[in-house]
Amino acid sequence: MSDRLLSPLFRKFVDDELLRAPMLFDQVLNAVFGGANRQLGGLQGAQRNAIGEMLQVAQIQRARLAEYFLHSLGEQVRAELKRQVNPDTGAHTTASATPPRALALVDEEEVAIEVELSHAIEDIKSTSEYELRELQTFVAAMFGDLDMAQDHNPFRPATFARATWAAAQALPLSRGHQIAFMRQCATPLAQVLRTSYAASTSRLESMGVEPAAYRTLILPSGSRLGGRSVMSTYSPDLHRISETMLASPETQHGARLVAVPPPASRTGEMPLERWTTVARDTTQRADRQAIELVGRLFEAMIADRRVPQDVTLLISRLHGPVMRLAVRDRNLLDHDGHPLWRFINQLVFIAEMTPHSGDPERLALLRTAQATIDQIASEATQHTGLYRWAWDHLQGFLGKRLQRRLATLASQVGALQKSELKLKGSHHDAAPSTLDGPLDAHQLDTVPAEFIHNQVAPAQDESAAKAWLAALQIGDWARMFLQGRWLQAQLLWRGEQGEYLLFGDGASDETWAVRSRALVLMHGHGLAKTLRVRSIVGTAAQRVQQDVAAETAA
After folding, report:
1. Cα atoms in the Cβ-side hemisphere of radius 13 Å centred on 226
2. Which residues, including other chains, have CB under 8 Å from residue 70's CB and lie 6 or more apart?
3. How far is CA 189 from CA 22, 26, 123, 192, 250, in A?
4. Distance from C-alpha of 517 to C-alpha of 503, rounded to nearest angstrom
5. Which of 197, 215, 376, 425 has the smallest CB count inside 10 Å?
6. Strand boundaries in 250-316, DSSP class E
7. Within a 10 A sphere around the Cβ of 181, how many other Cβ atoms?
8. Domain total of the chain
9. Nearest 10 degrees: CA dihedral of 142, 143, 148, 151?
């Protein structure tokens, strides 16, 4: 992709928004100072003193706050434009290809920051939902993306939230004061951005831009999933669905079986073998029904737009062999535990955890899966053992990949082990307050502990969060909000003392060492949860079940 893809009209839009940014932040500060001064009358003791001190310094440092905000906003926008110009040359690298970067340490202080960032982002999204959606349609039109396959708007809620946190760090005060400033800015920022997004839409409309057709956006990997049903592992009763299959045209019309043209496939996919072709030599009605169900399940899986296309191509190679397997193995329809479904579900899941198409780790995964599937497809006799071997082979590949990554992080793991031993031999509260190392929230200088706890409320059910932490296993994947963004990270190592856990990003070689107490706080605030392998066949079965019901009703 070349730089010419950024049209002059889009560049003008970006330049105009950046020029208006100083006035936007000025409006936010005015609202913060006005609203916080009114709140002081209802506060008492340490909170009143801390908020008052924060407001006084912020007013004195107003120009410095604006400078930090605008610098961060500009840097983020330029990085986003660079990514849009060259989407395949992002920062995705693997630990095996490059030396690991400096280890990032995450503690309760970092989590307190992430909580405020996430709250600010959600405030903006909920307040400006309609305006933001409308602006996205206009920006997509300037890219020629009339179906809105992705969000091209560089001025997203997360961008402004991170810029506001950058401004907060300009305050020459403790982290507690900076977090308080961020919290005070959240609601005014959301309200100002609602007006700003609406004004941007009006300007684009006056410039003659026609909006793209709105539909549900396919968000970047690591974006908020928010309890989507696609993560469900529920699968309908396949045996019961099988009994509703027509079994064969002969039983319906007394006509001879004929091959039906395959359905339209996604670009590059091989034609699907129709169930009637496979059933031609099958005399048992139950076998015909099983073959038809499996054929329709594969058609539904291959049509699932949430499955990456490169993985869909591999799944389609199993379509014919598995229909033949259905005659020999009725356990195929029992549940998701069959090696075939486990293999498919795991393949899709790991591909989603390594989202960049050019990532060497993803390419290695696809090569391994292709060789495995080619071996299965070449076998004249299909049986369950083939798919059990495929599952074991995939698990062996993933285990070796995990070990390779750990080997590159040996020095970091050694440093964490030494740090854990020091913590065990000393009082935890003696550590100084700094973002470069482990600390506790109540150690923040100049701000009483109760002030911090009022800013970042403790988890409602700490016991549940601790149980979640105890259940985490090496190799598990988690969805986490770190450094102002959602990411998918794998647990690579946990200390013998349980104080540190080392996570690796699925989209890059970044790693984070997270304090156990910080993880408990993150989970309690909805900023960390375990990702489970979703049932691809379950989703397909629901689709087939709905189609059969519609056919029956017709």
Report:
1. 5
2. 21, 22, 25, 163
3. 13, 10, 9, 5, 67
4. 15
5. 425
6. none
7. 26
8. 3
9. -100
* 103 inside domain: no
Domain that holds residue 195: 3-93+118-206
Q: Are residues 143 and 41 in the same domain?
A: yes
Residue type, 382: Q
DSSP secondary structure letter of residue 26: H
Whether 270 and 345 map to the same domain: the answer is yes
Listed in sequence order, the residues at least 6 apart from 11 whose beta carbon sits closer than 8 Å to its beta carbon are none
Q: What is the dihedral of CA 427, 432, 438, 440, to 10 degrees?
A: 70
- In a domain? residue 221: no
DSSP per position, 111-167: HHHHHHHHHHHHHHHHHTHHHHHHHHHHHHHHTT-TT--S---SS-HHHHHHHHHHH
Does residue 350 sit in the same domain as residue 421? no
Tokens of 334: 């029992």
**Section 374-395 average pLDDT:** 93
Q: Which of 206, 241, 272 lies at the terminal end of a domain, its last residue?
A: 206
Q: Is this prediction's pTM over 0.90? A: no
Least confident of 75-84, 163-172, 457-466, 513-522: 457-466
Residue 356 — very low, low, confident or very high, per pLDDT cuts 50/70/90?
confident
Q: Which is nearest to 384 in space by CA: 299, 321, 317? A: 321
CA atoms of 471 and 316, how far apart (whole Å): 35
